[in-house]
Design goal:
Length: 340
Amino acid sequence: MRLHKALVLISKEREVSRLQQEISAKVEEKMSDAQRKYFLNEQLKSIKKELGMEKDDKEALITKYRKKLKDCVEVPEEAMGVIDSELEKLSTLEKNSTEFNVTRSYLDWLTAIPWGKTTDESFEIADARKILDRDHYGLDDVKDIILQFIAVGKLRGTVQGKILCLAGPPGVGKTSIASSVADALGRKFFRFSVGGLGDVSEIKGHRRTYVGAMPGKMVQCLKSTGTMNPLILIDEIDKLGRDYRGDPASALLEVLDPNQNDAFRDHFLDVPVDMSKVLFMCTANDLSTIPGPLLDRMEVISLSGYDLPEKIAIAEQYLVPKSMRESGLTVDDEEEQEET
């Protein structure tokens, strides 16, 4: 009886041992296969690298950043020093580490700024008048002020240092006028609304210690336009918010001040960026809600609403033809339909 029980136990242990050996053999086979593939892939990378057919990921990144910097006209000394130190740090980091991704993101933004690149400005008064008349009906007083502004810029050789604020009720064409001014001057156009904005980081950027940190709208504008002298429209500036995250109006003071914005320092980049070549324009419905120090930096242009004859003329000359084009109709088609 004892021998029978012992035989049963030994048989069970033998079966368990056999299963363990089978599992271990399968695991070892998979591990050795994975190690073999990894070893062969590393050998292949080394061979390609030696033959010059392929570069290491980090080397390719550093080469890309160097190439971007060569395309820049003039990189400030402080910014160049930061970029060089970050490139040196990137070459020593493991590419799977968190610090590598943070440094890579930082270098992406530093090299994306069009350092020293500007677009050629046009100060042709006649062309500006044609563009304004093409895009807007009436508003003769406003157009005259803008043409005077361009004429003064022609005499000075630049329009920088002036901040125009278009004030008036909704729907009178404040935003489209700013776009027409950019077209007339030959500048790139960038618009962002600050209505209800209460986070100062939207203007000055987040610090790099935060996950998902990004630069502010000013730096994003330079990257998207690809030039250091765009026209930036700050829309709804009279509706700026304010909460525990800071006062955006105070942050805008530095950006809009011609005596300070030549060394604007974004929290994310932490290097001086020259914003003095940017032409700022603002729109507002109610000037009384704009903080005094901010309003003092602007030259206000008031726009009134349209009367009934002007609205009819706008509908006939602008809205109806536009609607017909968007509907796939033409004026000739409409005339043929009327005749039939």
